[in-house]
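DATA SHEET
Item: assembly model
Revision: 1
Owner: S.N.
Input lines:
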Amino acid sequence: MTGRSPQGPFPPTEEMLARPVPTALQVAQEEELHAAWRTRTGLRYLMSTNNTVIGKWYAATCLVFMLFSGVLALLMRIQLAFPGMNFLDADRFNQFFTMHGTGMMFLFAVPLFEAMAILLLPAFLGARDMPFPRLSAFGYWSFLIGGVFVLGSVLFDAAPSSGWFMYPPLATEAEGAGSDIWLLGLSFIEVASIAAAVELIVGVLKCRPPGMRVNMMPLYAWYVLVVGGMILFAFPPLIAGDLLFELERALDWPFFDPARGGEPLFWQHLFWIFGHPEVYIVFLPSIAIAAMIVPTVAQRPIVGYSWIVLSAVGTGFLSFGLWVHHMFTTGLPLISLGFFSAASEAVVIPTGIQIFVFLATLALGRVRMSLPMLWIAGALAIFTAGGLTGVMLAIAPFDWQVHDTYFIVAHLHYTLFGGMILPVMAGVYYFHPFFAKRMLSERLGKWAFWLIFGGFNLCFLPMHLTGLLGMPRRVFTYPGDIGWNTLNLISTIGAFTIAAGFAIFLWDLVRPGKPHLTNRNPWNAGTLEWTDQVRHRDWGVRSIPYVTSRYPLWDQPKLVARMDAGRYYLPDAPERLRETMVTSVIDARPTQVQRVTGDSWIPLLAAIFTGGCFILPIFHLYAPAAMSGVMAVGCILYWLWTATAQVPKAEMRKAGLGLKLPLYASGPEAVGWWAMWITMLADSTAFASLVFGFFFYWTARADFIPGDATHADAGLVALCAAGILLSWGLTYGARHLNRSAHATAARSALIAAPTLALGAGTALVLSVLELSPTSHVYPAIICALVIWTGAHIALGILMQFYCLAGTIFGKIDPNHDTDLWNVTLYWHFLLMTVAVTAAVIGLAPRLL
Amino acid sequence: MLRKAISPRFLRSPACLLLVLPLAACDGRQSVLNAAGQDSRQLLYLFIVMLAGAVVLWLGLNGLFLYVTRLRPQALKIHNVNWFLFGAGVLFPSVVIGALLAWGLSIMPAQRAAGDGLRIAVHAEEWWWRVEYWPKGATTPIVSANEIRFPAGSRSELHLSADTYIHSLWIPALGGKMDMIPGRTTVLTLHPDLEGFYRGQCAELCGASHALMAFQAVVMAPDDFARWLKDQAASAPPPTSPAATRGEALFRDEGCGACHTVRGTEFVGAVGPDLTHFASRGTLGAGNWQPTAENLMAWIAHADDLKPDVAMPAYDWLDPDQLADLAAYLKGLT
Amino acid sequence: MAQRSLPPTDREDEDELRDESLSLWRIAFSPIIWAAHFLLCYAGAAIWCARVGPTQGTAFLRLSVLALTLIALGLIGWVGWRALQQWRPEASTADRLHHPENRHHFLGHAAVLLSLISVVGVIYVALPALFIGTCQ
């Protein structure tokens, strides 16, 4: 093994920290940092990858999508203001509510979490940037392209109209491109969300400042960790569902068609396994913002830090046991409903604990009421009401009455306004001086608050009653003699009041002439983001501090001056390269200086081609789509080859305070290895959802597996498994051979391995050629598993060739083998995938 | 439009006074608050108790928040935060919610108790309801559409299925809803006990005319119900007026019988609703309009205007006299 | 090697790093037990009611839920007890909240609290088997 280990003293002593930095050196260092981090201007601004730039783009795009979706809601409220209105016809109304839900959930609520985390998390952690800045940029561009495409379909009267939940058979049978736009456009965005989750998890685990142990992280980081984990397990089932759905739409494979053994309810399971955790994925980061604001308002540390951690982790787990409460009326056995009713009630407890922690913190502190706190107070009033109706709805028999009525519309808006919109608004007012360096108006803020808060209750409080009086959701009109007229008119007035509040907020946001910040920490907060200088510098923190407290600005009085002077770590950029610090997972001991990728056109290009690959098939342009896909792969390979895991000129770098840190890491030390591990966890979840499908059909349908069915050829399946096992062994062997400097042997292994894998993949495809997937769901699910596994084998082969090229062109040598480690890790998961697929398609049909 | 069917009992009930009267919205034909059966009453009681608890908890929590942020003179002292959080955040909610959960679970079996004999098969179409009555021991059903009648005082079983899309059958005044899913049969049982006219509606998004998929539910005294069912089993009465006779001929010539059945005639179509006793039903177009002659004429001439994407073609070439004859024929199908 | 070049300076570092990595996972043990209990109950009931319930009744199913619940509670109790030893609650009063508990105690504390929630969750999830005796 190489001599790449940290050298020098850690932690730093007070004498070391007290030593002044010469002014000339400070100036020189600032120039270096500026050269490395400066944001480009003109058209090249679009090449930016810096988290502060991407974060702002991301958040602004979310805001625009939110306004668009909100306008759709206003138009719907006009249609519903009076009975029998003809403002919107039925089809357009259906498109509007579908896009309102889709836009708000997929294009606003979830991406806004990613946007705020990308913007704020590095500052919370005193880091220069996220660990994979180009991935952030790629995620942003994917989101923008997909979002514009999906929402834009409304303008062409081509939007999906089967609800944001897209239940088959309505959505699978729907004519036109609407359902495909929804599926492919959103799959594209979901992939970007998973990318963001991977990056945020790695950011929290590996990019904390030295000394910030796991129990000293800002609470926001805990929430990011939990929510990132939830995304990894919640989004993949929907991606698997999307794959099956699109196979049914495009190739008529009958996954959801009961006439050919399919099951419409299977989609509902997959959708809500995603859909309910998703509610908490939206809610927790917003509560995390509150958890940053409340201590500042109380001017004291949070009371019950461990309780918040418990609450976040507990909510994250329990939220996966709730999905069937969206399916209480589908006629499942009562005992099954009971389990989900119980879990739905249990999740109330950790959710409530957070509120009590905030209450206790405020009670023990000296509260300074401010505009952000006003929004938090409004959020509490609204969220507790929504939570209490949630307790009612989790009681299954009560849900049988009000399910799919306006009572639910009221409930979900109470939870989402109280649990997401209002805390986020608090966050915007609180963090605006941080990211815009100007204060928002107190007076306009109060107007906006009272209009939104009052308008909200005017709009949605009556809806509880509308629902109890029997009005179902998603109706484009209603008769005038059932007693719903007054209530609906009040709701419409309320909706426009909310809109007026948002108009004031927007004006405040964009109006010129807001006063510049004079004090970098206007709220007197205790966390690291407020060390950001009054004039924002592109490098983020001037030097990465050594932290000994949860609230370093309160407890480490000399911290800010020392950071500004460049007394702490990484105060310079001698090679004019962007760098951030990597620390250990638990105790945040410095382990490495990570060279992060800089500005480039490649994320934008990769996103455009990936978008083409997802979007062109909707118009049946399969050849251009395939070409676009190839170009996307090419872009990503170029990006990886030229910008990641570069062999540094020198192995070690002086990191400040006498510490020398390595510039290269491989295996579990490297952030890329963690990213691969986390990505494969998500990937395996999607695969598990497909396997779940097989057993779901077996449980739910008496005609699964049909008696006369043709099975996959067992011999060929076994051959495939054996080939992959050998290929995996060779890949694993190549890693060892390379490390022990047997370059030729390693290269030979890396030639043999993909050859074997290619043979194995061919055997797998041949094993199912006799099957007719349009005839019944059994051959269809077998073929879906083969598609999934085959695509993964192809990717594995590509990776093996990438490593082969790496060993030949000097990117990989005995001392620098991080690519080989990451590829081997991928192959561990691939081996498992192939083994399970082989067992399910080769063995299970013969045993069940 | 439809006959007013306000339950007098509901008007006197505290739930209405508390919740509804201030907003003068006390029709209640389709209201959860207007409970007219065992199941809905049990759920209304559950709701009122939960609502009272929720109001108390909401006031308590928000009152506490107001107190600690605005009203108190100085910082409070909580000696052991862990005990406070344990008591308020874990112990209290666990007990309260656990009790509520137990109550909710305990009433579930009763809500799905087996029926007392009458089985009603309801098959959802786009966007209307095919209804078959199977009294105890019946070997063939008595077919109707877009109206469901129940005998008061006994539990009826509804066997629900669907044609193409998922729908959901819901009569708020009688009890909870149940989805109707292609490829399965789901079972809902209801025990109505107050006679009257109620309204039901599809609760699951099912396409363009989801909003217009309703029906009338009628709860009758058991004897009345038995008599009514016997009448429904009979063939359609022959036309009695010249207009109705002309209407029958038009019905034949325009091919209406290809889609609609009128038992006792040559019309045996099975695509649209059975019209054998059409005139005995309270509504037109699946719970949406009063079956007056004018509404019938408008419906026949322009069904697709009234109900988007409906399968029935618009007979807009018929002149008003012809439409009136058709309406007369249909109004005679008592 | 990395450890040797960075000599430990405070008492916390005497705790073996491997132990701490384990206890980061340990805070998730109790919720994982809850999740396993939940999934087994749900999958068991779904398969039982789809395949054998209509003919054979639910006695076996309900007894299985009871047994699973006892096992889950036992396991969570054991995890919680271990975590309680690690936490030493007398060290964390409100006055001391300015200073974070040390990382060792913190992970114990979080694990105790998660065990508490998991116990409530497991008991709730067992309740349906008490009240519902059919596969309807």
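QC remark: The mean pLDDT of chain B is 90.
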